Amino acid sequence: MTRRLILMRHAKSSWGDPAQPDHARPLNGRGQRSATALGDWLRTQGYLPDRVLSSSSVRTRDTFDRLGLDAPAQFSDALYHASPAIMLKALRTASGQTVLMLGHHPGISAFARSLVATPPTHDRFDDYPTGATLVADFPITDWGDLTPGSGQAVDFIVPRALTG
Prior knowledge:
By secondary structure, the protein is an alpha/beta fold. It has a single domain (3-163), classed as Rossmann fold. The chain has helices at residues 29-45, 58-67, 84-92, 107-115, 160-163; strands spanning 3-9, 51-55, 73-76, 98-103, 133-138, 152-157. The protein has a six-stranded mixed β-sheet, with helices on both faces. Helix 2 (58-67) links the parallel strand 2 and strand 3 (73-76). Helix 1 (29-45) crosses helix 2 (58-67) and helix 3 (84-92) crosses helix 4 (107-115). It is globular.
């Protein structure tokens, strides 16, 4: 039996109000369209999480809402701009067969690179743009047994591929 992780960077956020605190920034119009397209892609591909671990920021919450997924979500301040070590610690306590984790750059891109044995050949994997989504499988039966470098990349997508 395996466990599946869907590792997603939040969609594009708005910088319309320069005085707005970073944690409170919502998605912009492009981010809203991208998050909706990513949710459609996840459903079409059959990549449906049964648990969600997310940063507590407004833009990650907005991204999750726009995905339109029916899964219980846990929003955590600890995942706001979290390091790969913090993300790994949170994931090791997860329940569920398929977990969606929503986070921020640069931690999420470093975490993605650390998890898979062989990275996807996609030219945007290393910079992990907004909305970038990795789907990876792990040969474990419990998230507590997760070790870096043990994942197999199943899929990788960026919103531009879905929205043109």
